[in-house]
């Protein structure tokens, strides 16, 4: 299971690598050193991945990532794709912000 100390001590490698937390949550560490919280799930027979956000300054905490994981699992249980819902919300936000310019 991940802790803030473990996350802070993760070092980049030549290739992206993953470190598991719990309940399907994991972090992906890029060669540039970026650490992102992700969740892989299956919906309608398809594998999908949602990225919750980056860890670190200006990003999200481990506790926030676990909360988002709970929300994503509820969506999957309801037959909704968390990744598609996230993209839809971002698109709606973009449309609304264009309308205010």
UniProtKB/TrEMBL annotation:
Similarity comment: family membership: Belongs to the 'phage' integrase family.
Keyword entries, A-Z: DNA integration
Organism: Shewanella chilikensis
Hydrolase as UniProt keyword: no
Protein name: DUF4102 domain-containing protein
Annotated PANTHER family: PROPHAGE INTEGRASE, PROPHAGE INTEGRASE INTS-RELATED
GO biological process, one term: DNA integration
Residue span(s) of domain Integrase DNA-binding: 2-88
């Amino acid at each position: 299971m991940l802790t803030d100390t473990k996350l802070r001590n993760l070092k980049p490698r030549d290739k992206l690598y993953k470190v598991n937390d719990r309940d399907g949550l994991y972090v992906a560490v890029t060669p540039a050193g970026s650490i992102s919280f992700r969740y892989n799930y299956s919906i309608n027979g398809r594998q999908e991945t949602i990225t919750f956000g980056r860890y670190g300054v200006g990003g999200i905490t481990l506790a926030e990532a676990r909360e988002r994981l709970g929300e994503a699992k509820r969506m999957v249980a309801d037959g909704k794709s968390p990744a598609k819902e996230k993209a839809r919300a971002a698109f709606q936000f973009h449309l609304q912000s264009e309308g205010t310019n």
